[in-house]
Design brief:
Layout lengths: L30 E6 L4 E6 L12 E5 L1 E3 L3 E8 L2 E12 L9 E8 L9 E4 L3 E8 L5 E6 L4 H8 L13 H10 L7 E4 L11 H9 L3 E7 L3 H4 L15 E4 L2 H12 L4 E4 L1 H11 L7 E4 L14 E5 L6 H10 L1 H13 L10 E5 L2
Parallel strand pairs: 1-17, 3-12, 3-14, 4-11, 14-16
Antiparallel strand pairs: 1-2, 5-6, 5-8, 6-7, 7-10, 8-9, 9-10, 12-13, 13-15, 16-17
Helix pairs in contact: 7-8
Length: about 350
């Protein structure tokens, strides 16, 4: 058997047509593969049936970060020559918006043609000067705009859907503004959606509350660390980019009380998992800060036992996290079953409910 620390151990065959290009409508009709870990058994359900797997007093924990329309299309101007450029804003580096030029950490494409002091032009009289390149190969940009950049993004920005979602139809790109956002998103700051939460609809949330399930929200702003490829043959040598998280004391107390009393705490998504596990690694728990924990098989979970998650890319840190929780062989067997059963994969795809039972 190949070592669980080998990057190639996280490969699996996926027909291209199973990569979802749009969510099902309504969202809660997505398929849900339910894995029972101790029984080593799975069943096939629909997400709308989620309340049936929870009881009064159980807790659902979600990530309420809101996705920025952080993808910008512009042009580089050098003398009389212009070239197109694509920018993905990561996070603002300057202090308060409006107190001076805004600096942003950003990803640029094509990156190899960028030079410091290049000037990038965007719609709405927005310009950016290239300041420097980071050691990771990303960039720092300094913006000039008529008003704070975040207030302009709804007008000039596009939702940063992953590259495997192909958008040749502009009407679909517009729909991504609704599709690529959870219905409970509140705190703006992510450059990718916490996709396990995309399946929730108001009626499912209402059904959970009517059943007496407690609803808790934390915030982790999804950045490049979540989707940056692993490039080391031994996954133990990979380092995660940090992502900012915040957990209120009331939410932490709710989770801890439920755990002590033996009630289920269902964690929605790998980003929520990383926030909770990062907090729990400190004594006392660190309820805000930079999450940089990399979870792969052999990791000892401190909080998370039950997880709702999507089907993830081969060789991704997200798949490694799921294998750490559910067991490498069992999870990969479930993935092969999902392919046979024609589940829809990745951000707009179906989901997996992993239960510690």
């Amino acid at each position: 058997m190949e070592s669980v620390f080998s990057l190639s151990a996280y490969d699996y065959e996926l027909p291209r047509e199973l990569i979802a290009q749009a969510p099902v409508e309504p969202r809660d009709q997505a398929r849900m593969m339910v894995l029972r870990l101790r029984q080593r058994h799975w069943v096939h359900r629909r997400f709308v049936e989620l309340p049936a797997f929870l009881q009064a007093g159980d807790v659902v924990v979600v990530n309420n970060s809101r996705v920025l329309p952080a993808r910008l299309y512009g042009r580089i101007v050098r003398g009389n020559r212009e070239r197109p450029v694509e920018v993905l804003l990561v996070r603002r580096l300057s202090s308060e918006a409006g107190s001076g030029p805004e600096r942003w950490h950003a990803l640029l494409r094509p990156s190899r043609r960028i030079r410091p002091d290049d000037v990038l032009h965007f719609p709405a009289e927005v310009r950016a000067s290239v300041v420097t390149q980071t050691p990771e190969g990303d960039w720092v940009l300094q913006f000039e705009s008529p008003r704070p950049l975040e207030t302009l993004l709804d007008d000039i920005g596009w939702m940063p859907v992953p590259p495997y979602i192909v958008r040749r139809d502009p009407s679909l790109a517009e729909r991504d503004r609704r599709w690529y956002q959870t219905v409970y998103a509140k705190v703006q700051g992510s450059i990718a959606a916490p996709t396990a939460g995309l399946h929730f609809t108001p009626r499912v949330i209402q059904a959970l509350r009517e059943k007496g399930v407690l609803w808790c929200e934390i915030t982790l702003h999804v950045g490049p660390g979540t989707f940056r490829p692993v490039r080391t043959p031994d996954v133990r040598h990979h380092r995660m980019d940090p992502e900012w998280y915040e957990i209120s004391p009331d939410v932490w107390a709710c989770i801890e009380t439920a755990r002590r009393q033996g009630r289920r705490v269902l964690v929605v998504g790998t980003t929520t998992t990383r926030a909770l596990e990062s907090a729990a690694r400190q004594d006392p728990p660190r309820l805000s800060g930079w999450a940089d924990v990399f979870i792969y098989p052999g990791y000892e979970f401190r909080v998370v036992r039950d997880l709702l998650t999507n089907f993830h890319l081969p060789r991704s840190t997200l798949l490694m996290l799921v294998c750490a929780l559910g067991g490498y062989e069992f999870v990969l067997a479930a993935y092969r079953e999902a392919v046979r059963e024609r589940y829809r994969f990745y951000s707009y795809g179906d989901c997996m409910l992993i239960l510690d039972e």
